[in-house]
Specification:
Number of domains: 1
Shape: globular
Oligomer: single chain
Radius of gyration: 18 Å
Number of strands: 4
Structural class: alpha+beta
CATH topology: Glutaredoxin
Largest sheet: 4 strands, mixed
CATH class: Alpha Beta
């Protein structure tokens, strides 16, 4: 019995590590593409971006993800940019970004680095938390100014 528990725990650990490695690879690949992707060239620099992949037949996209994104945009106004891409119509972009299913959202910081990927519906609260971590990271990275004494 103890061996089964140990094997189950090892499988869980291996699965978790594999998932984290895949997610890190996916973020790296998406970031490389986001810096060169012509879809993002029209955006205002210095403002975080949510790249949202959808399809025409995606019911959760229409009923959950789009309302969440609208709510977020209403709340943040010019503090966020949302780019909606139809993965069925723009298959090349979906392949470049590594999109497997709809909805998929990518949260990019103000320098166009992918920081979060959401496979499936991401509600307004989750997206806000992700954007808050961007703000905290940006604030942390900014140099502090010292007063001359």
């Amino acid at each position: 019995m103890l061996e089964r528990v140990v094997i189950a725990l090892l499988l869980l650990i291996v699965g978790f590590v594999a998932y984290r490695l895949f997610k890190r690879y996916h973020i790296h690949k998406a970031t490389a593409n986001s810096l060169l992707d012509p879809i993002l060239h029209h955006l205002q620099p210095g403002i975080p971006v949510i790249v949202y992949f959808t399809t025409p037949g995606c019911i959760p996209c229409r009923t959950q993800q789009q309302p969440a994104l609208r709510s977020l945009q209403d709340e943040l106004g010019n503090g966020i940019q949302v780019v909606t891409i139809d993965a069925a119509e723009n298959l090349d972009a979906a392949n470049r970004w590594g999109v497997f299913s709809a909805p998929t959202t990518f949260v990019l910081d103000s320098t166009r680095q992918v920081r979060h990927i959401n496979h499936g519906v991401a509600d307004t609260a989750a997206l806000k938390r992700q954007l808050d971590t961007l703000r905290a990271t940006i604030d942390w990275q900014q140099p502090t100014t010292r007063k001359a004494s």
